[in-house]
């Protein structure tokens, strides 16, 4: 649903939702049910494009039954694991099903407070609202270490956000730096066509996709681990040791499908240097080293010195500014496609009615 941008004479919206992914759409669903006036600003040309742009083989590690937003079941077998294109199509269908007001191609360039609320500038126009929900998610600016620039220029380097398929990299050796879920999945895929080494710092625990015929998240849910509060002692431990689901790098190493190496600390010509002094000669590097926040457009005092949101369950110290869709915003479930709806409902019911 396309909506025209605001103008100076129009009444301000109740809420402006910045971000048209799953968090922004979940917020829109609950705002609509509450009778609020709102618009969702999506930087992409189409709903779901951020998912379409990810690597071809990406499959969720949660089944369809745990991957739905509020009000609309995920289509297909509840036990199947959706592809990234299925997720994109589902989000597009979600907007249509509830006729959510979405302004596409509308990245926010600047947001500031006013005496009566907030103003947002986009390439498509100017918006005003009494409150703002920032739902841009955790995957903003790809991060690579500074020493990556000193690697020999003939070594091909890709961040995981730019990787699509094994043919993106030249034949031969590839070092995957980082062993989170994306890094582990990509490393396993590359091991079928390349000689792969995975360089990791502290190894993360691995959990099987299914255990005794059941999805692993059924067990985690039964144990209450998906609802562990972020600020609790157990929550703090789990945040430091978030497991990799479905890809066991130690098993792949034991079966000689790939090699494991220590943390990368520097470069020497065509080689990466490990923290134990080893040298990994390679034809290419896949940096699965995560993302950094990018809120340069947010001219409101809600960020710490590292540019990270300061919040309590999405509520900031600035009245009318909220975050949604952050990892561990409230619980482990906050980061899951099927869990963000709970956070959205809680935020809107308590603060935006």
Automatic annotation (TrEMBL):
Pfam families: Pyr_redox_3
Molecular function GO labels: flavin adenine dinucleotide binding; monooxygenase activity
Keywords: Oxidoreductase
Descriptive protein name: K+ transport protein
Signal peptide: none
Transmembrane segments annotated in the record for this chain: none
SUPFAM superfamilies in UniProt: FAD/NAD(P)-binding domain, NAD(P)-binding Rossmann-fold domains
């Amino acid at each position: 649903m396309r909506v025209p941008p605001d103008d100076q004479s129009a009444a301000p919206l109740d809420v402006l939702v910045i971000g048209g992914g799953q968090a922004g759409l979940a917020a829109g669903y609950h705002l609509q049910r509450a009778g609020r006036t709102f618009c969702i600003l999506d930087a992409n040309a189409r709903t779901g494009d951020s998912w379409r742009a990810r690597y071809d083989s990406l499959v969720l590690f949660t089944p369809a039954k745990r991957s739905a937003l509020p009000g609309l079941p995920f289509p297909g077998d509840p036990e199947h694991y959706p592809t990234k294109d299925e997720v994109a199509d589902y989000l597009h269908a979600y907007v249509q099903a509830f006729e959510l007001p979405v302004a596409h191609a509308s990245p926010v360039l600047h947001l500031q407070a006013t005496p009566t609320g907030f103003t947002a500038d986009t390439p498509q126009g100017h918006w005003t609202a009494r409150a703002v929900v920032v739902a841009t998610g955790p995957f903003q600016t790809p991060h690579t270490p500074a020493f990556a620039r000193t690697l020999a220029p003939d070594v091909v380097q890709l961040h995981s956000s730019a990787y699509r398929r094994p043919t993106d990299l030249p034949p031969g050796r590839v070092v995957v730096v980082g062993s989170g879920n994306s890094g582990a999945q990509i490393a396993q895929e590359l091991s079928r066509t390349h000689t792969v080494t995975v360089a990791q710092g502290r190894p993360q625990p691995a959990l099987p996709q299914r255990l005794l015929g059941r999805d692993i998240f059924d067990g985690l849910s039964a144990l209450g681990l998906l609802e562990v509060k972020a600020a609790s002692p157990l929550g703090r431990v789990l945040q430091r040791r978030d497991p990799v689901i479905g890809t066991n790098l130690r098993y792949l190493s034991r079966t000689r499908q790939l090699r494991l190496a220590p943390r990368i600390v520097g470069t020497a010509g065509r080689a990466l240097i490990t923290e134990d002094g080893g040298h990994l000669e390679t034809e290419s590097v896949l940096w699965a080293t995560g993302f950094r926040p990018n809120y340069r457009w947010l001219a409101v005092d809600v960020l710490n010195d590292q540019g990270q949101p300061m919040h309590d369950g999405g509520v900031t110290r600035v009245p009318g500014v909220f975050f949604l869709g952050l990892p561990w915003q409230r619980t482990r479930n906050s980061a899951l496609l099927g869990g963000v709806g709970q956070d959205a409902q809680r935020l809107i019911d308590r603060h935006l009615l």
